[in-house]
Amino acid sequence: MACSGETQGNHAGLMDDIYRYQRRIYDISRKYYLLGRDRLIMQMEPAEGAHILEIACGTGRNLDCISRRYPGRSLYGLDISEQMLATARGKLGVRTELAQGDACAFDATSLFGRDGFDHIVMSYSLSMIPDWQGALREALRHLAPGGTLHIVDFGDQARLPKGFRLLLLAWLATFHVTPREALAETLETLSLSLPVNIEHASLFRNYAQIARIHLRL
Q1: Per-residue b/e over 138-154, b at no fewer than 16 CB within 10 Å?
Q2: Methyltransferase domain spans which residues (predicted)?
Q3: Pairing state of beta strands 208-215 and 196-203?
Q4: What does the pLDDT read at residue 68?
Q5: What domains lie within the chain, and their CATH numbers?
Q6: What pTM was computed for the model?
Q7: Mapping DSSP to helix (H, G, I), strand (E, B) and coil, where does residue 150 land?
Q8: What would the mean pLDDT of 26-40 be, rounded to a whole number?
Q9: What is the pLDDT of residue 15?
């Protein structure tokens, strides 16, 4: 179910409160534990002229990396937090079209002047979105035929030492982050009703998980 207007407003306010000051140190601090983002970007290999959207783009770190690695592509970023978008605008300038919006329900045509993206990126975002299954369905709705949704996020940490895992989960909870342990199962269920090919793998002893969902032509 898509987020209601009231829920969207509450979540936007929460994200602004969390990142009002953290956005200034976000990139330098998160590089040590948001693992797998660069692997996702290296695996993308978008065609020349591809249209790439990142949902919950935050400070624009990933879009900046994509722009440098794959010049000549059209880039778009969506985030619910105006605080994070302020940092992204300063970083990306005219290289990316940015817009404020809810990952659970957004109109890409009105925000970006197009719909149907060749690649959509969701990097450490599902774990912060209350209706994460709704956000996943919304992302797939905006894929062009033949397009690919790329996901990287926290895993279940099942293969990590128990004490470390418990401390990590408690620390993540202070930032309203909940690892989506059912992601693989949810993707498998989606594959029963959509023409998709799915790849899913665990990284770093289940610390993180990475997935690609390809919408067949």
Answers
A1: bbbebbbeebbbbbbbb
A2: 52-147
A3: antiparallel
A4: 97
A5: 5-215 (3.40.50.150)
A6: 0.88
A7: strand
A8: 77
A9: 60
